[in-house]
Amino acid sequence: MTYATLTDADRSAMLEAIGLSSIDELFRDIPSGVRFDRPLALDDPLTEQEIVGRLEELAARNVHAGEELSFVGAGVYDHYVPAVVDYILQRGEFLTAYTPYQPELSQGVLQAIFEYQTVICELTGMDVSNASGYDGTTVAADACYIAKHATGRSKIVLAETISPQVRQVVRTYAPGFGMEVVDVPHRDGVVDPEEFRAAAEGAACAIFQQPNFFGCLEAAPQLAAAANDAGALSVAHVDPISLGVLEAPGAYGCAIAIGEGQSAGNPLSFGGPHYGFIAAREEYTRRMPGRIVGETTDVHGKRGYVLTLQTREQHIRREKATSNITTNQTLLALGGLIYLCWLGPEGLQEVGETCMALAEHAKERLELPLLFPEQTTFKEFGVRVGRQAQEAIKDARAQGVNPGYPLGRDYPGMDDAILVAVTERRTVDDVELLAEALAE
Amino acid sequence: MTYATLTDADRSAMLEAIGLSSIDELFRDIPSGVRFDRPLALDDPLTEQEIVGRLEELAARNVHAGEELSFVGAGVYDHYVPAVVDYILQRGEFLTAYTPYQPELSQGVLQAIFEYQTVICELTGMDVSNASGYDGTTVAADACYIAKHATGRSKIVLAETISPQVRQVVRTYAPGFGMEVVDVPHRDGVVDPEEFRAAAEGAACAIFQQPNFFGCLEAAPQLAAAANDAGALSVAHVDPISLGVLEAPGAYGCAIAIGEGQSAGNPLSFGGPHYGFIAAREEYTRRMPGRIVGETTDVHGKRGYVLTLQTREQHIRREKATSNITTNQTLLALGGLIYLCWLGPEGLQEVGETCMALAEHAKERLELPLLFPEQTTFKEFGVRVGRQAQEAIKDARAQGVNPGYPLGRDYPGMDDAILVAVTERRTVDDVELLAEALAE
Amino acid sequence: MKLVFEHSSPGARAGRIPIPPELSVPAVPDELRRRRPPRLPELPEVELVRHFTKLTTRNFGIDTGFYPLGSCTMKYNPRVNERVAALPGFRDLHPHQDEDGAQGALELMHDLQEMLAEITGLYAVSLQPAAGSQGELTGLMLMRAYFADRGESEQRRTVIVADTAHGTNPASVTMAGYELRKVATDARGNIDLDDLRGKVDDSTAGLMLTNPSTLGLFDEHIEEISRIFHDVGALLYYDGANLNAVCGISRPGDMGFDIVHINLHKTFSQPHGGGGPGGGPIAVREHLEPYLPVPAVVREGDRFHLDYDRPKSIGKVRAFTGPFGVFVRSYAFILGWGAELRTMSEDAVLNANYLLARLKDAYDLPFDRLCMHEFVLSARNLKKEHGITALDVAKRLMDYDFHPPTIYFPLIVPEALMIEPTETETKGTLDAFVDAMLAIAREAADEPETLKTAPHGRPVARLDEVKAAKRAIVRYRFEDHPDLTAEPTAPAQVEAPKGA
Amino acid sequence: MKLVFEHSSPGARAGRIPIPPELSVPAVPDELRRRRPPRLPELPEVELVRHFTKLTTRNFGIDTGFYPLGSCTMKYNPRVNERVAALPGFRDLHPHQDEDGAQGALELMHDLQEMLAEITGLYAVSLQPAAGSQGELTGLMLMRAYFADRGESEQRRTVIVADTAHGTNPASVTMAGYELRKVATDARGNIDLDDLRGKVDDSTAGLMLTNPSTLGLFDEHIEEISRIFHDVGALLYYDGANLNAVCGISRPGDMGFDIVHINLHKTFSQPHGGGGPGGGPIAVREHLEPYLPVPAVVREGDRFHLDYDRPKSIGKVRAFTGPFGVFVRSYAFILGWGAELRTMSEDAVLNANYLLARLKDAYDLPFDRLCMHEFVLSARNLKKEHGITALDVAKRLMDYDFHPPTIYFPLIVPEALMIEPTETETKGTLDAFVDAMLAIAREAADEPETLKTAPHGRPVARLDEVKAAKRAIVRYRFEDHPDLTAEPTAPAQVEAPKGA
Ligand SMILES: Cc1ncc(COP(=O)(O)O)c(C=O)c1O
Ligand SMILES: Cc1ncc(COP(=O)(O)O)c(C=O)c1O
Question: Which among A9, A98, C453, D170 has most CB atoms closer than 10 A?
Answer without folding.
Answer: A98
